[in-house]
Design a protein that fits this description.
single chain; about 210 residues; alpha/beta; TIM Barrel; 8 helices; binds D-xylitol-5-phosphate; binds zinc ion
Length: about 210
């Protein structure tokens, strides 16, 4: 079954506690938290204090997507704040393997995100260090962007690279009701969806239709 991870980026920031409870009640599997630093991506969101404030509100696993430079400097702060899963970007540090190992040593699941222009082959020698691979299907930074069609071929190649491994495939960006079934058929384990969940009044129906 495909897991659905609503991205809080598209929630009403004035009503975050209600928004988190609403998607939990509506059947979300994970809560996806987009951390942006205004450097790695041209947008700025939130950091460990907000995650720590959300932590007691929900039992959903917190899936933290770090779109920040030098992620290795703050991994401990994110795990202490309550992150269950931490994904760093392949393009954000030279020492990717060290950072992934550090995430696991802190007790969280380790993820690697790849931007649309990043060769998937970068992760070949990291397969044993990974719990999940996040394939960006838009250029990171903003919610509500259109799904890039080149993602389909990337997912096909990723399937080959991860064959026989227990590594989850996550897709993030432009996921909506019109491509969710094809993504599941392409072997995607986790669908991250911002506007396709928080942009809908009926969150339960939105999540159910993404799950297919
Ligand atoms: C994009 C973020 C996504 C974003 C997805 O940089 O990583 O998680 O919130 O938003 P939608 O689903 O609206 O494309
Ligand atoms: Zn994200």
């Amino acid at each position: 079954m495909t897991l659905i991870a609503p991205s809080l980026l598209s929630a009403d920031f004035m009503r975050l506690a209600d928004e988190v409870r609403a998607v939990e009640e509506a059947g979300a599997d994970w809560l996806h938290l987009d951390v942006m630093d205004g450097h790695f991506v041209p947008n700025l969101t939130f950091g460990p204090p907000l995650i720590a404030a959300l932590r007691p509100l929900t039992r959903l696993p917190l899936d933290v997507h770090l779109m920040i430079e030098h992620p290795e400097r703050s991994l401990e702060a994110y795990v202490r704040a309550g992150a269950d899963r931490v994904t760093i970007h392949a393009e954000s540090t030279v020492h990717v393997q060290r950072a992934l190992a550090a995430i696991r040593a802190l007790g969280a699941a380790a993820g690697l995100a790849v931007c649309p222009a990043t060769p998937l082959e970068w992760l070949v020698d990291l397969r044993d260090d990974l719990d999940q691979v996040l394939v960006m299907s838009v250029n990171p930074g903003f919610g509500g962007q259109a799904f890039l069609p080149a993602t389909w071929d990337r997912l096909r190649r990723l399937r080959g690279l991860l064959a026989g491994r227990e590594v989850l495939t996550v897709v993030d960006g432009g996921v909506a009701q019109d491509n969710a079934a094809d993504l599941a058929a392409a072997g995607v384990d986790v669908l991250v969806a911002g506007s396709a969940v928080f942009g809908q009044l009926d969150r339960r129906a939105a999540i159910a239709s993404l799950r297919g």
